[in-house]
């Protein structure tokens, strides 16, 4: 699964990097034109915020000139690592997708800083831990964090809700999918009926409030869209009709899947999936 | 009249990290504290019906960590660059793990003896593991009494808050976790924090 080609994204200081994606050798013209038209919309809305909350040096990294080398360490399933893979995929960024099998974990764990996965190795920097710290970092690097401090805060808020839901998925559902017990059906049923419904209801309200043109927050793709997509993908495996009553979420999912980089990643993932999730 | 209004109970709890960020940065804000009796009447005004939330301009932001991260960015305490911000996030997430465990499993115990016993066990296990993990991260990311890089960030303030409330009760804390202790002492000496801590209302937690 590791992307081993030498092409990496060149970050040029002082430039808006979203429109630079056309420099890739891969077919990304759809993605870059989508970003360009969104950039124009952003420039209009940016002037509204120019006096107050925009803090672009923190919103995205414009300090590095060399492409970074990234290595994601995680298990060979989606779980808490998939959001990070989606960020790399959407931004068309090369990285080493290192997947550890469960049987290798007991030996490998001592070599990780906190005996937890995922973690991210960036160049020669100390290993970055915590899935959400990693996701937020890469979102900033790839211009998927939000356009100004207000938007970043809204994205953060959505991410926090998603993380709470992911924690519950990891506590109740993933174990049953990996090592099913007799209670599997009942647990999953209860989970869908209560925990999942609450989460979907809240997210539907928030994206209606925060998002435009089908996006979750603001009017372009952010890491919030990706995390929502990831969590709904997990739920669809349990119940393919899970979004039936959520028109905004359905619209959002279609919009996100319009992204050509994501489309090819998802197509590839469907082919590669050995486990059920 | 300041731009920022932080609304929370008259407790440290999940609001204190943001109050400490304001205190360390010197940025003015309205520290609105709601008494328990007033809360039911006001609950439906709060986004998602929860506290804390921060009102700034037209935006009402709940979720204690989203608020803290936002205010840290506004006050220059998020981390000096994107990678340091990520390291600060990682430190905060890691120190919140034992805190969340405490809230989920220990906080609600009614019986005083049972609670004390559970808390002792917590300190020995989850509390110790959490402190060990953060001690390790501080060694990787920080230096000289800072948990990330070489300057104050909200990660230091989170460490201070958690140590003050929970981990200071850990036996031999300062010897077992010297890097954490160095951060704790460093934050304690910060003039903005020291002034704030001296004057803040005393609350059970």
TrEMBL record, chain A:
Residues 1-62 are annotated as: Disordered. InterPro entries: Glutathione-S-Trfase_C-like (IPR010987), Glutathione-S-Trfase_C_sf (IPR036282), Glutathione_S-Trfase (IPR040079), Glutathione_S-Trfase_N (IPR004045), GST_C (IPR004046), GST_superfamily (IPR050213), Thioredoxin-like_sf (IPR036249). GO terms for molecular function: glutathione transferase activity; structural constituent of eye lens. Keywords: Eye lens protein, Transferase. GO terms for biological process: glutathione metabolic process. Residues 68-146 form the GST N-terminal domain. Its EC number is 2.5.1.18. Residues 148-275 form the GST C-terminal domain. SUPFAM superfamilies: GST C-terminal domain-like, Thioredoxin-like. Residues 46-62 have a biased composition (Polar residues). It comes from the Eukaryota. It holds the Pfam family GST_C_3. Residues 13-29 have a biased composition (Basic and acidic residues). It catalyses: RX + glutathione = an S-substituted glutathione + a halide anion + H(+). Belongs to the GST superfamily. This is glutathione transferase. It comes from Brachionus plicatilis.
Automatic annotation (TrEMBL), chain B:
One of its GO terms (molecular function) is glutathione transferase activity. It catalyses: RX + glutathione = an S-substituted glutathione + a halide anion + H(+). Residues 2-79 form the GST N-terminal domain. InterPro entries: Glutathione-S-Trfase_C-like (IPR010987), Glutathione-S-Trfase_C_sf (IPR036282), Glutathione_S-Trfase (IPR040079), Glutathione_S-Trfase_N (IPR004045), GST_C (IPR004046), GST_superfamily (IPR050213), Thioredoxin-like_sf (IPR036249). Coiled coil: none annotated. Residues 81-205 form the GST C-terminal domain. It comes from the Eukaryota. The keyword Transferase applies. Its EC number is 2.5.1.18. One of its GO terms (biological process) is glutathione metabolic process. The keyword Disulfide bond does not apply. Keywords: Transferase. PANTHER family: GLUTATHIONE S-TRANSFERASE, HEMATOPOIETIC PROSTAGLANDIN D SYNTHASE. S-crystallins are structural components of squids and octopi eye lens. Contains relatively little if any GST activity. This is glutathione transferase. It comes from Brachionus plicatilis.
């Amino acid at each position: 699964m590791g992307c081993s080609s030498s092409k990496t994204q060149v970050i040029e200081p002082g430039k808006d990097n979203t429109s630079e994606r056309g420099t890739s050798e891969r077919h990304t013209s759809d993605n870059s034109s989508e970003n360009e038209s969104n950039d124009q919309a952003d420039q209009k809305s940016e002037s509204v915020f120019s006096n107050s909350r925009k803090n672009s040096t923190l919103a995205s990294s414009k300090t590095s000139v060399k492409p970074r080398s990234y290595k994601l360490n995680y298990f060979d399933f989606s779980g808490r690592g998939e959001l990070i893979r989606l960020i790399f995929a959407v931004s068309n960024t090369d990285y080493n997708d290192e997947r550890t099998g469960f049987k290798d974990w007991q030996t490998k764990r001592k070599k990780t800083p906190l005996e937890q996965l995922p973690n991210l190795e960036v160049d020669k920097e100390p290993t970055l831990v915590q899935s959400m710290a990693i996701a937020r970092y890469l979102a900033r690097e790839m211009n998927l964090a939000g356009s100004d401090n207000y938007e970043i805060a809204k994205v953060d808020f959505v991410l926090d809700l998603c993380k709470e839901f992911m924690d519950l998925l990891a506590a109740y559902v993933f174990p049953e999918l990996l090592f099913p017990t007799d209670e599997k059906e009942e647990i999953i049923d209860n989970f869908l009926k209560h925990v999942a419904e609450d989460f979907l209801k809240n997210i539907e309200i928030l994206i209606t409030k925060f998002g435009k043109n089908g996006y979750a927050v603001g009017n372009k793709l952010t890491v919030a869209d990706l995390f929502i997509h990831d969590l709904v993908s997990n739920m669809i495996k349990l119940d393919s009709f899970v979004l039936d009553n959520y028109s905004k979420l359905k619209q959002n999912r279609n919009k996100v899947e319009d992204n050509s980089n994501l489309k090819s990643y998802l197509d590839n993932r469907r082919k590669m999936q050995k486990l059920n999730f | 009249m300041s731009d920022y209004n932080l609304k929370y109970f008259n407790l440290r709890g999940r609001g204190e990290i943001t109050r400490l960020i304001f205190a360390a940065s010197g940025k003015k804000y309205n520290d609105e504290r709601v008494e328990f009796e007033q809360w039911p009447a006001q609950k439906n005004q709060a986004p998602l019906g929860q506290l804390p939330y921060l009102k700034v301009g037209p935006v009402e932001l709940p979720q204690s960590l989203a608020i803290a991260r936002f205010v840290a960015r506004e006050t220059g305490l998020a981390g000096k660059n994107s990678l340091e911000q990520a390291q600060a996030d990682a430190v905060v997430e890691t120190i919140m793990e034992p805190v969340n465990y405490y809230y989920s499993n220990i906080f609600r115990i009614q019986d005083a003896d049972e609670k004390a016993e559970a808390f002792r066990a917590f300190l020995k296990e989850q509390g110790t593991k959490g402190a060990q993990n953060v001690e390790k991260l501080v060694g990787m990311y920080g230096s000289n009494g800072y948990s990330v890089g070489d300057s104050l960030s909200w990660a230091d303030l989170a460490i201070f808050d958690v140590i003050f409330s929970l981990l200071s009760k850990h036996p031999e804390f300062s010897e077992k976790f010297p890097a954490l202790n160095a951060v704790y002492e460093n934050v304690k000496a910060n003039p903005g924090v020291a002034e704030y801590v001296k004057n803040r209302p005393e609350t059970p937690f």
